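User: Sequence in, structure out. Go.
Assistant: Echoing your sequence, followed by the structure tokens.
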Amino acid sequence: MKKLILISGTLMLLAAFGLRAYFAFVPPPEPSLTQPLAELFPDQLEGWWVHDQEIADSPESSARVSEFLKFDDALVRTYKKPGITVGIYIAYWKPGTASYRWAGAHTPDTCWVQNGWSCVDRQYSVPFKNQNTVFQPAEYGIYEKDGHAERVHFWHLVGGQSMAYNQQNMHNIFGALVDIREHGLNLRQEQFFIRLSSNRDLESLKKQPGFNRILDGLNAIGLGG
């Protein structure tokens, strides 16, 4: 057992050395985000009340999330009309500023649950479409707190591609090597963590005038096919 641990540790050290050497000569890719997130989503929407929040006021605020995750940009915006609430939460990291595992560790499955919510339904790689635009598959869950239920779609984009989130309630100690297998040596691509939440189901929201403009914002940051 000790010999296996020693071999594993040696392999990880060699991998880390190789990555440092690679990063020393290969610059990170250019970011695709060229304007503030707040400008990509409507700040006025006819028939809706629009309000921006601080990160600390969102369910993701557990463990001083803004200090921990060190976003390059973030948006927490709420759209309301009688009986309907839609929330947008987006965090953005420039290429090379955060590990994929770290940026994707604060899903509703962790942050919301740690803030008192209960997950009552969870689905993976759910199809998502807006009119004629097919979005990348979403992670989906229904979370409840104090008798209130929120339907949540979320994505973690790495270099424009959505990461899968079936973590099976544990972290893989060889996660960095898994990331190399999935993404190659360039582990410095830009990242978005995106959450769309509402007290209403998606199909009923699509019937609401103006909701498509919110989805247009999601398309603008790379969720569209």
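User: And one key feature?
Assistant: Residues 47 and 209 are 8 Å apart (CA to CA).
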